[in-house]
């Protein structure tokens, strides 16, 4: 990992209170795995924000974030040419065996972001993508998943975009005819609770989205969050 100076090239709202930010480094950025993230500086804030990495192309990095508090609101107001520091890449990312041939991706809301780059990491695997959102106002990255997946299902709770209901239900239906080697999940806690109850009978890899202070495990905030997660048997 390393701290980089990144210059904002664009900062655009792509869904309701969801922004895609493109940043440029003066030096070549490292390779990363889907599921890894950066720890991004926010002006006038002590703590940085952990945000999933969507794409890295030489010295350009793309991230997607939602405005959920004062810090992310300030990020959404930043203009082009603003310089921010970011430590990256952090986290383990999804590491898949070479024997896997078909993998299902199950994402909810912003949890779709860390899953998309997994497809580009493993060119020999067929990916089937199941993404869920509250409504069409929250939908992101549809074109990207549709283009790069063997099969793509988008579902919204109110049926305003794609299928009506939950993405997990569409995945379970397809599992009766498609033999998946594993399911990769990133999304809100209710989705992960539902997956546990579903007992999918295949290996399940989960990316946990939690707040953190330092981004490198030193402050133990993430440890405490994960410990609570396990205590609650989600």
Walkthrough of the structure:
The protein has 234 residues and is α/β, with parallel strands linked by helices. It is built from six helices and twelve strands. The strands form two sheets. The protein has a six-stranded antiparallel beta barrel. The two termini are 30 Å apart. Residues 226-234 have low confidence and may be disordered.
Quote the beta fraction.
35-45%
Quaternary status: single chain
CATH class of the largest domain: Alpha Beta
Strand order across the biggest sheet?
1-2-5-4-3-6
> CATH homologous superfamily name of the largest domain?
Nucleotide-binding domain of ferredoxin-NADP reductase (FNR) module
Q: Describe the global form.
A: globular
Percent of residues in helices: 10-25%
Judging by the overall fold, what is the CATH architecture of the largest domain?
3-Layer(aba) Sandwich
- The end-to-end span amounts to 30 Å
How many domains? The number is 2
What is the strand tally?
12
The overall pLDDT average reads: 91
Number of helices, counting only DSSP H or I runs of 4 residues or more: 6
CATH topology of the largest domain: Rossmann fold
User: Using only CA atoms, what is the Rg?
Assistant: 17 Å
Run of helices and strands: EEEEEHEEHEHEEHEHEH
User: How would you sum up the major sheet?
Assistant: 6 strands, antiparallel, barrel
User: Helices and strands: which structural class?
Assistant: alpha/beta
Low-confidence stretches: 226-234
């Amino acid at each position: 990992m390393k701290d980089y100076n990144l210059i904002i090239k664009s900062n655009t709202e792509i869904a309701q209170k969801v922004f895609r930010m493109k940043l440029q480094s003066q030096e070549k950025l490292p390779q990363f795995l889907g599921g890894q993230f950066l720890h991004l500086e926010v002006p006038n804030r002590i703590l940085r924000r952990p945000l999933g990495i969507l794409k890295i192309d030489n010295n350009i990095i793309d991230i997607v974030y939602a405005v959920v508090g004062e810090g992310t609101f300030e990020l959404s107001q930043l203009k082009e040419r603003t310089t921010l520091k970011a430590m990256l890449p952090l986290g383990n990312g999804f590491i898949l065996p070479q024997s896997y041939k078909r993998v299902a991706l199950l994402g909810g809301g912003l949890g779709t972001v860390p899953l998309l780059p997994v497809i580009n990491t493993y060119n020999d695997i067929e990916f089937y993508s199941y993404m869920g959102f509250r409504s069409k106002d929250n939908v992101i990255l549809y074109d990207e998943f549709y283009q790069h997946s063997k099969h793509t299902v988008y579902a919204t709770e109110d049926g305003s975009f794609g299928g009506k209901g939950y993405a997990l239900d569409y995945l379970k239906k397809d599992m009766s005819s498609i033999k998946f080697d594993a399911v990769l999940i990133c999304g809100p806690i209710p989705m992960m609770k539902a997956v546990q109850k579903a007992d999918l009978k295949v290996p399940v890899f989960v990316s946990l989205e939690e707040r953190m202070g330092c981004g490198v495990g030193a402050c133990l905030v993430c440890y405490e969050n994960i410990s609570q997660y396990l205590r609650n048997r989600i």
